Every structure is written in C-alpha cells, then in structure tokens.
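Same chain as my last thread, 126 residues:
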Amino acid sequence: MKSFTTFARTSSIAAVLVGGLLLTGCTGSNSALPEGVPADVKAVSGEVTNVASSSDSNWSFSVEVADENAQNDAVKKLTDAGFRVVGENEADGAKTYALTNDKVNVTIVLTQIEKQRVVVYNIVKL
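reply #2:
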C-alpha cells in the first residue's frame, strides 16, 4: 500500500513538471510581447524571449525566427507601420537598424546565436 501511495504522488509530481515544461516551450507571438509596448511597434512572429523593461517607456526583448527572410521582415513591418530608418550598421555578422516615427524609437539587431536566427528589439517611447 505504501509503495502505491508513493508511486501516485511521484506520478502526480512528474505530470505537473512535464506540463510546466510543455508550457515553457510554447511559441510566443505579438500577444506575448511585453506589456505596454506601443501598438504601432509591429514585431515579427516567433518565440519571444529575454523580455526586460526598466520603466513604462522602454522595453527590450528578442524574437527567435525561422530564417534570414523572417529577420528582414522585422524592418519591413516597422517601415510599413510608418517608421523610417535613421541609421544602420553591419558588423560581425549582425545588422543593426535604428528607426523612429517621432513618438517611438526602435533599434533592432538581426543576429544569429548558434544556429538560431534572432531579432533583438530595443524600444523607447519618447
């Protein structure tokens, strides 16, 4: 009887842990962006990671994307939403773009971490 109770408890704990791991593997989308990100900031779809915000006027997060085309879509989505590119740079395999719409400044970095393509967003509401 004791071994059955121990087995049942262990199984219940394992089920909770596996469920938690499955949830952490869920892919985020724009709905997973940090709270308060201005609506005119259009981010690419993908898994949102490394979310940080030090105030209600700036945010930083990364989006893991499928390929280089998806990274390039990050710039297009912002320019289509009314942002203009005010600077760009390329170094060590990473491309950096500075964009603004005069209400919000966005810097995006298109990079690769190991084999994963990533778009890093840094947003400042003016």
